[in-house]
């Protein structure tokens, strides 16, 4: 089957790598994600990944404990590098060729982010993992996902969630009668303050007409289903 998309950006939160752990990254979970990504990549789809760091550190929790917010955020960005390296290792174990590109220079472990080089890697069939978010404090890896997706001309962002099928009218884990939303526009999602991605990231996608597929990462095979055109999760798109 011919895939619907030829270049995608997958956003994995730190939580997605945590599995059943309370903190950190679960090697079995990461291995399972790597297998899924590889399966889709084998269809000829170019894949870039932005990985979060919330399973290890969030700048806001540092700030809440009295730390300078920017310092906390830099720690958060470094946490994403740890996840990126773990993911790279797992992907290479299943036979993928990968590159980690970091928005903060750490040349011993990752390439610096250079847009044209990232695109070249993708064209050559390498899976590119973007680490360190945008490289700026006060942002999130959701914004990094939107920014990088636009820069590399990805056709869609696949926004992985855990334990929920997509976007709901309220958090289904807290509000039992929350309704699942099949399709919605960026503007409606912003106005209704729905949990797609943070406001900065969602605005960036809206302004540039970049569609987002929000889906449950816990159902194995969902990435492949979306890429093959199956209706999975919630589609956030202009005019949706
Ligand atoms: N962060 C940042 N700038 C960025 C991306 C991330 O300062 O461009 C910091 C921020 O402190 C954030 C942490 O890195 O809390 C981890 O990223 P995020 O919370 O987006 O991870 P996720 O929720 O996806 O696991």
How would you describe this protein?
By secondary structure, the protein is an alpha/beta fold. It has helices spanning 27-41, 59-64, 69-93, 115-123, 141-151, 186-191, 199-207, 222-227; strands spanning 7-12, 46-51, 98-102, 111-112, 127-131, 156-161, 167-168, 180-181, 183-184, 212-216, 234-236. It has a nine-stranded mixed beta sheet, with helices on both faces. A two-stranded antiparallel sheet has the order 7-8. β1, α1 (27-41) and β2 (46-51) form a beta-alpha-beta unit. α1 (27-41) crosses α3 (69-93) and α5 (141-151) runs parallel beside α7 (199-207). The longest helix is centred in the middle third of the chain and has 25 residues, at 69-93. The two termini are 26 Å apart. Bound molecules: uridine-5'-diphosphate (UDP). Uridine-5'-diphosphate (UDP) is lined by residues 13-15, 52-54, 58-60, 72-73, 76-77, 79-80, 133-134, 136-137, 139-144.
What topology emerges from the helices and strands here?
Blueprint: E1 7-12, H1 27-41, E2 46-51, H2 59-64, H3 69-93, E3 98-102, E4 111-112, H4 115-123, E5 127-131, H5 141-151, E6 156-161, E7 167-168, E8 180-181, E9 183-184, H6 186-191, H7 199-207, E10 212-216, H8 222-227, E11 234-236
Helix pairs in contact: 1-3, 5-7
The protein binds uridine-5'-diphosphate (UDP).
The site of uridine-5'-diphosphate has 25 residues, from α2, α3 and α5.
